[in-house]
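Students often ask why we bother predicting the structure of a whole assembly rather than each chain alone. The short answer is interfaces. A chain on its own may look different once its partners are present, and contacts between molecules only exist in the joint model. In this exercise we take two input lines together and write out one structure for the complete complex. Read the inputs first and try to guess which parts will touch.
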Amino acid sequence: MQIDVDRCVGCGGCVNLCPCAAIYLVDNKAVIDQFACTECRTCVFVCGMAAPGVSCRFPQFIVFAEGASCGSPGRRGA
Amino acid sequence: MKKYDVIIAGAGPAGLTVAEIAAGRGLQVLLVDMKKDLDRVFRSCCCNLIIEPGTHAETVTYAQGAIHFENNKFSMPYAGSVIPLRNSFKVSPCGNTITINGKSPEGYVAVSYEKEALLQGMLSRVRQQGTIEIMTGVQALAAENVKGGVRVRLRSPERRFTVQGRVAVAADGVNSKIVESLGLNRTRRKFFARFKVASYHMANVRCPYPDSWVTFVGKGHALGGRGQFYFCPKPHNGQIDPPVYELTIGQPFIGKVPTVTPLEELENLTKKSRFASWFEHMEVIDVRAATLNFYTPLVNPIEGNVVAVGDCAAFIETYVQGAIMYGFQAANAIVKHLETGSGLEEYAASWGASFEYNNPEEIKKATQGFGLHVLKDDDLDYLFGLTQGDDIRGFVNEFSDPDTVRNALYAHIEQVRIERPELAVTLQKMREVSVHDALQVKKH
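Now the answer. The structure tokens for the assembled complex follow.
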């Protein structure tokens, strides 16, 4: 998944709700780590701006997230 | 590894309040927030001062550059502008209204203010404290209770790392990662629904209800058949005249995701609806958004050495003033706890007793009031029409507003029984919702 930065207002909702913790706020916009994203579409469902949507596995912006895997940190027992 | 006294996740009104008080008492404080610009607001926020006495067992007023909390005996400086709101209008799809007149001594229903201005003031005071370290662009992912304290996992786009503290404060809002990481959303709360929200700040609006809080009630307002629309003037970068209006569009959903986007709803309401004339020359000057998972409150906001403050423990929200007030109470409890070894339970007791939705009866009341949204448009037009000329008094306050509206409609129940017997039965059923019914929600 990728974020349309022209639509994203940087509310951070998807950052907190992403079950893979694959989304960061960078310069007040959400950015999806393409290596951590599992295309689960949670961000698409929750975004009031319809900003996530361009499905693409080719990373435009890569941040290497060490140890990132699916499931919230809580589910893995922190 | 450096050990902090207090680690605070989230630099909103709750986190900043705790930070200022804790650091003011000489504690070593770490404040982290995923945002880079802490004094800017990108999220939708009601940001009306709820002035009804007794809200959160407190009476909050605005006077002389500060927000005053009478029962807790403290004030929070606020140097921004305000717009007192005189009426609350509920507008049915055909344009009939229920008019609620301000019940405060001054005749206000609420006071609209500006969150940026509030945060800027709070932040500047926090930055003056010597014992506080602020990390921006850093998100708290999880907290874990360990012997004698707590470990908090943090991350920035560049790295992940862990910090240790004696107490951690979850002030990271309605979608709190900390609360989720401790399993509290599964073990202690019930999931109601999801909301996605968009807010549009608009200039050049011709609103026929100036200085008022406007709620569009009914399915007919929304292109997608469901949605909540709120409209009110909002100080914008200090500007109050001519007023900038904020239109907030909320889409609740449980299973099926709404197919209509808030932007499409905006287009529909402002260009095609019967209210389009208000927006003829409208210009959108700012856009905000929010999304949230809507749970019942955390009845006990303490988990070991982690203290949940503000929206992350609430039922959607505690309002900004609630975040500040509970931040104030939590900070004092934490200071005491770190000095004497006990104190957190005082905050938990206060939260349990004062946050309305910890009482299931209040959830029942809210359910009854929000039942209005499921009535047919034609019935709403009819019911709202009945209240013309009534002197209805109340406030903008989610805790009392459902009751105010319900009572206003029930004043006409005899007439409804004669003219629309089926509607009278529906209204009666709505009134008889039990606590059990109100709490029947889908499992997450």
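Check your guess against this: The beta strands of chain A are 2-3, 23-26, 29-32, 52-54.
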